Amino acid sequence: MKLTSYTNFAIRSLQMAALKAPELIRVDDVVRVHGLARPHIVKIVHELGQAGYIITQRGRGGGFRLARPAAEIVVGDVVRLTEGPLDVAECFNPESNTCPLIGICELSHALQEATRAFLAVLDDLTLADIVSNRGDLLARIAPLEAGIVAPVRTVK
Q1: Are 33 and 145 in contact (CB under 8 A)?
Q2: Judging by beta carbons within 10 Å of its beta carbon (0-12, 13-18, 19+), is residue 54 exposed, middle or buried?
Q3: What is the pTM of this model?
Q4: Suppose 57 and one of 6, 29, 62, 85 were both cysteines; which one would form an S-S bond, judging by CB atoms 3.0 to 4.6 Å apart?
Q5: Closest CA to 126 of 67, 78, 58
């Protein structure tokens, strides 16, 4: 399974909002800390706001914050929102399928089971879970927020 960068950035944006709650987070904060493209984050923040995960505040001093407690935001739901249908194989989508083996292919059955298992794990994970090591996460992003690039550590 591989998630799109869009989903990855959406989860990172929510993670930052959870870390800084109840403060407002600016799009530029997410861009700076994660080194992402601003237009991409603007689009993600808009979609997360439309879906009710965050509340946005426009204008000078604006930004976004979580719309509900982090413990109530299920990562699997965010993945479904940002990924849409997880059509791992062509045969998952009956509208575009061209495989004559649909319905009898054991690989298809196994991939469907794997997709269900993948989402089941994410359905047991909340935003609160992924920020449970809050102190470590905040320490790691502090130099990035300040515009100081932390030295890259190499593993030997």
Answers
A1: yes
A2: buried
A3: 0.84
A4: 62
A5: 78
Structure tokens at 93: 């989508």
Transcribe 23-84 into DSSP letters.
Answer: S-B-HHHHHHHHT--HHHHHHHHHHHHHTTSEEEE-STT-EEEESS-GGG-BHHHHHHHHH-
- C-beta separation of 45 from 64 below 8 A: yes
Walking along the chain (156 residues) 10 residues at a time, the average pLDDT comes out as 91 96 94 91 96 93 95 98 82 75 82 92 98 94 76 44
Distance CA 148, CA 153 (A): 15
Q: Are 28 and 13 in contact (CB under 8 A)?
A: no
Q: Where do the domains of the chain lie, and which CATH numbers do they carry?
A: 5-145 (1.10.10.10)
